[in-house]
Amino acid sequence: MAFVVTEACFNCKYTQCVTVCPCDCFHEGEKMLFIDPDPCIDCEACSYECPVGAIFMDINVPEQWTEYIALNAEMAPQCPSITDSKPALEGEDCKAS
């Protein structure tokens, strides 16, 4: 199992989650973050840090976002690793809770 970044991250890209990841699983795409499922140890730290509720354990991803499970696995190896926080994109659909 692994955690998955879903649609709520798209156009937001808050990065608080990357700073708490003990395995450096996060990768930065142009419009969102991705989690590499292979090194993910299911610690849940990232899901608690996400201000928009975009991160779920793969078995708990809402049905409308299940395609993000494969998308994270596909895109993470193609994108650079990210371990430090950066300013968010603050897209108009971003609603930090």
If you had to describe this structure to a student in words, what would you say it looks like?
The chain is 20% helix and 12% strand. The strands form two sheets. The chain has a two-stranded antiparallel ribbon. By secondary structure, it is α+β, with helices and mostly antiparallel strands. β2 (26-28) and β3 form a beta hairpin. The protein has a single domain, classed as Alpha-Beta Plaits, CATH 3.30.70. It is globular and about 30 Å long.
Topology:
Elements (H helix, E strand, L loop, with lengths): L2 E3 L10 H5 L5 E3 L4 E3 L9 H5 L5 E3 L9 H9 L22
Antiparallel strand pairs: 1-4, 2-3
CATH architecture title: 2-Layer Sandwich
- Cα-atom radius of gyration: 12 Å
The beta-strand count equals 4
Mean residue pLDDT: 93
Number of domains: 1
**Secondary-structure-derived class:** alpha+beta
Q: Indicate the overall shape.
A: globular
Name the poorly predicted regions.
none
List keywords for this structure.
alpha+beta; Alpha-Beta Plaits; 4 strands; two-stranded antiparallel sheet; 3 helices; 97 residues; single chain
Briefly characterize the structure.
This protein has helices spanning 16-20, 45-49, 67-75, and strands spanning 3-5, 26-28, 33-35, 55-57. By secondary structure, the protein is of the alpha+beta class. It has a single domain (3-78), classed as Alpha-Beta Plaits.
